[in-house]
Amino acid sequence: MKKVLVLIFALIFALSVFLTGCAQSPPVNDEVKKTENADAGDAEVLEEVTIKYMGFSANAESGISLDTLKEKFESENPNITVELEALGYLDYFTQLQTRILGNDAPDCFETNYENFIAYADEDLLANLDSTVSSTGLDMSVYNQETVKAFNLNGTQYGLPYSFSNVVLVYNKELFDQAGIDYPSDDWTWADVDAAGAAIRALGDDIYGYLQPIQFFEFFKVIEQNGGSILSEDGKSFTVNSQENIDALQHMIDRVEVSNIMPSEAQMGGMGEWDTFLSGRLGMLITGIWSFPTFTSDATFEWDIAVEPGNTQKATHFFANGLVVNAASDKQEAAFKWISYISASEDVAKFRLENRWELPPTLYEDVLAEYEKVTPPENKAAVFKSLDYLVTVPKVVDFNQMVDIVAQELSAAVTGAKTCEEALNDAQEMLESKIALD
């Protein structure tokens, strides 16, 4: 177990998640009812219990606090006291790993999708199937992709907490200057290339498109071209398929050939968001968590569309989940807490009002209000993108896989290797170092 756990570290995307404000009890299936004693004298006296919860979304860095939510929960569950511990994302998984190895892990905690796989594989998480059934938690209120993210081999080990997806963000003013139509939700790579070239022609320091060439974009771009990291049965790597080689070559050609995408040198040390906000970039592939920053800082009009594909659509989503420690002797109370902060409609409303990541629940009135908040005008693209979500491969040695592929992508970007050489080398290393079930 230690060997695997040592690999568990936080990856990219320092994603913020909000949970503060009013909350209500999670929905319960109508078919499942809790019985009460008719005779008040027979009323059950519930044992008082204190549970420990640790998370990384609500902390001093994000400016979010779960205190109000904790108070609401405790008022509805007077026998349960919740002790909150909030850590920064960069330190979180190292601290959690230390706690697990020292048999001092909290009763329930937050995790991201990538690290969840290793925890579940090592039997560190409680099986929630029977608890979901006995409590009557209505799983149909969730976006089912978020539910599946925390299900391993048919067993539900976690509840979804939040998720974000990725869209195409574009500068409307640069499109107007170039005299071209705005992106639509059915755009393809060819449309991006054509529009990017028209915008690139506006000036030496103006670029049409930006999509980082790194693992978390690559795994999704190859899906858009009919490729994949793993075989369909998940038992072998397919990194060096022709579809993948062609996709990587297309990404690099956008920098080296058409130059619709700026190189690192041309970006001059600026980040992706800053490059977009500078007004020098026509289109950017990025997450919906960018909306608050772009709304407050952009000096031009912008909007979004579904991310373009080639042979098919595919777009990434990032998920955070809530799990119960398998070693905890307070699993029932811990589940009550995580289901409360996962499925509450009031929390979903507060989250969307404050433009945090999407709640995993699908309350129609809440999502309708979310669509009304602009910019972007095309909020419908956020939900349309849900039809094309793809998740990163479920590999226990996830971090090692990412490192191997990232190393070879870098070699291709710098020209040290051809795309074919880089992906052939990645395939060989993955097969030699990572065993798939």
Keywords:
437 residues; alpha/beta; D-Maltodextrin-Binding Protein, domain 2; 2 domains; nine-stranded mixed β-sheet; two-stranded antiparallel sheet; 11 strands; 15% strand; disordered N terminus
Which helices and strands occur, and which strands form pairs?
Layout: H1 2-5, E1 49-55, H2 67-76, E2 80-86, H3 89-101, E3 108-112, H4 113-121, H5 129-135, H6 144-149, E4 151-152, E5 155-156, E6 158-171, H7 172-178, H8 189-200, E7 207-210, H9 215-224, H10 242-256, H11 264-267, H12 272-277, E8 281-287, H13 291-297, E9 302-305, E10 315-324, H14 331-343, H15 345-353, H16 364-372, H17 380-384, E11 389-390, H18 398-414, H19 419-433
Helix pairs in contact: 9-10, 15-16, 18-19
Short characterization:
This protein is an alpha/beta fold and 437 residues long.
Describe the overall structure.
Helices cover 41% and strands 15% of the residues. It has helices spanning 2-5, 67-76, 89-101, 113-121, 129-135, 144-149, 172-178, 189-200, 215-224, 242-256, 264-267, 272-277, 291-297, 331-343, 345-353, 364-372, 380-384, 398-414, 419-433, and strands spanning 49-55, 80-86, 108-112, 151-152, 155-156, 158-171, 207-210, 281-287, 302-305, 315-324, 389-390. 44% of the residues are buried. With 437 residues, it is α/β, with parallel strands linked by helices. α2 (67-76) links the parallel β1 and β2. The strands form 2 sheets. Strands 1, 2, 3, 6, 7, 8, 9, 10 and 11 form a 9-stranded mixed β-sheet that branches. Strands 4-5 form a two-stranded antiparallel ribbon. It contains 19 helices and 11 strands. α9 (215-224) packs across α10, α15 (345-353) runs parallel beside α16 (364-372) and α18 runs antiparallel to α19. It has 2 domains: 2-33 and 46-163 and 318-377, Periplasmic binding protein-like II (D-Maltodextrin-Binding Protein, domain 2, 3-Layer(aba) Sandwich), CATH 3.40.190; 165-316 and 393-433, Periplasmic binding protein-like II (D-Maltodextrin-Binding Protein, domain 2), CATH 3.40.190.10.
